[in-house]
From TrEMBL:
The keyword Repeat applies. PROSITE patterns: TPR. InterPro entries: TPR-like_helical_dom_sf (IPR011990), TPR_2 (IPR013105), TPR_rpt (IPR019734). TPR repeats lie at residues 77-110. Keywords: Repeat, TPR repeat. This is Tetratricopeptide repeat protein. It comes from Streptantibioticus cattleyicolor (strain ATCC 35852 / DSM 46488 / JCM 4925 / NBRC 14057 / NRRL 8057). Pfam families: TPR_19, TPR_2. It comes from the Bacteria.
Length: 122
C-alpha cells in the first residue's frame, strides 16, 4: 500500500464534507480518521469529525472533539454552540447553557442568542 500524500488528505477531507451533507456521518468519520492521524493539529478536520460524531449520536466522541477544538480556539463560537447542543442532547442542560452563552457572547447569531436564554436564571 502506498503512503498517503497531502493531496489524499485534502481529497478525503472534501469527500467527508460531502458525506456529511449527504447525511452519512459514519462514512465521514472513516474518511477523517486518517486525516487526523496524519495531522492531529488540524482544527478544521477535528471540527468536521466532531459534527459527524454528533450527527451519528456518538455524543461522547463529539464532546471530546469539540473540546479539543476549543482548547485550540477558545473563541470559536460555532464550536461552543455545537458543544452546547451535544451536552443538551446528552441531558446535561446546565453545562450546555454555559456553552450556548459563550457562543452568543462571541457571535450574536440569532440561533446562538435564542439558545443562550439570557432571560432565564440558571
Amino acid at each position: 500500500m502506498r503512503e498517503r500524500t497531502p493531496e489524499d488528505n485534502v481529497i478525503d477531507y472534501r469527500a467527508a464534507e460531502h458525506l456529511l451533507e449527504a447525511r452519512d456521518p459514519r462514512g465521514a468519520v472513516k474518511l477523517l480518521d486518517p486525516v487526523i492521524t496524519a495531522h492531529p493539529e488540524n482544527t478544521a478536520a477535528r471540527l468536521l469529525r466532531a459534527r459527524a460524531f454528533f450527527m451519528s449520536a456518538q455524543l461522547r466522541s463529539a464532546e471530546l472533539e469539540f473540546q479539543i477544538v476549543l482548547e485550540r480556539e477558545p473563541d470559536n463560537a460555532f464550536a461552543h454552540f455545537a458543544l452546547g447542543r451535544t451536552l443538551q442532547r446528552a441531558n446535561r442542560h446546565q453545562e450546555a447553557v454555559r456553552h450556548f452563552r459563550l457562543a452568543a457572547a462571541l457571535d450574536p447569531n440569532p440561533e446562538y442568542m435564542a439558545k443562550a436564554a439570557f432571560d432565564r436564571k440558571d
